[in-house]
């Protein structure tokens, strides 16, 4: 795994990957701003109560709500939205480290959009359901990593594996290697919580998961997509 991590960071030296990185940074910042405005607008809809101390309390809760929502949903939202151009990172990584592979299947835009919407829906549902547990000290981070590691890992598996495997084979791979794939997803999800590093995390995650999945044989002949 350490070799794959080092290679993923090394990918940032490629001009094509850096191009994707800058688009990812723009998208990440736009996502944070949109989340902030969304929560602020929701608070504003509540109006004022006429009691200054209550209104100040609502404002404080709004700020806290913005931080909580951003922390909970940022990883899945950024990964889902980034998936539309992260395929470029997978192409570069495969060309450099896995030459001789047959051409990858072109994943239709509609299929990518459905996968992104599904991830967003699952992220919202699972994180909101787990919100009470996130308030419990000590348990909150492990539970968050458990949920978001699965969500992020699932998205990256589909991003990389569906290019070279049949959907049924991808589903089987997720079942058989669920612990390894969750661990890889949890690592990427953790990177998405580290200030500054989280801006590059989607690109690093795409390169990292490409290496992890090729170690699991996503391009073996019997699993290639028709």
Automatic annotation (TrEMBL):
Location (main, coarse): membrane
* Membrane topology type: Multi-pass membrane protein
Q: Where are the transmembrane segments?
A: 20-41, 61-86, 115-135, 141-161, 181-208
Q: Which InterPro entries match?
A: CysZ/EI24
In terms of Pfam families, this protein maps to:
EI24
Q: State where the protein is found.
A: Membrane
| Highest taxon, organism lineage | Bacteria
* UniProt entry keywords in alphabetical sequence: Membrane, Transmembrane, Transmembrane helix
Can you say what this protein is called?
Answer: EI24 domain-containing protein
């Amino acid at each position: 795994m350490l070799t794959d991590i080092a290679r993923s960071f090394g990918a940032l030296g490629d001009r094509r990957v850096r191009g994707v990185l800058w688009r990812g940074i723009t998208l990440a910042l736009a996502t944070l701003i949109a989340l902030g405005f969304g929560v602020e607008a929701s608070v504003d809809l509540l109006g004022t109560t006429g009691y200054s101390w209550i209104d100040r309390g609502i404002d404080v809760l709004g700020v806290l709500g913005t931080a909580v929502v951003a922390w909970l949903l940022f990883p899945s939202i950024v990964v889902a939205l980034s998936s539309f151009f992260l395929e470029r990172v997978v192409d570069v990584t495969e060309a450099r480290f896995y030459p001789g592979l047959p051409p990858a299947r072109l994943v239709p835009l509609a299929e990518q959009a459905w996968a992104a919407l599904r991830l967003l829906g699952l992220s919202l549902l699972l994180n909101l359901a787990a919100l009470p547990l996130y308030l419990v000290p000590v348990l909150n981070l492990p539970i968050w990593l458990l949920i978001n590691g699965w969500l992020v890992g699932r998205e990256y598996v589909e991003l990389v594996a569906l290019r070279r495997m049949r959907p049924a084979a991808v589903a089987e791979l997720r079942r058989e290697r669920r612990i390894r794939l969750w661990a890889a997803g949890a690592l990427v999800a953790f990177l998405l919580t580290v200030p500054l590093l989280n801006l590059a995390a989607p690109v690093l995650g795409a390169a990292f998961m490409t290496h992890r999945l090729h170690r699991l044989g996503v391009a073996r002949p019997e699993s290639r997509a028709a």
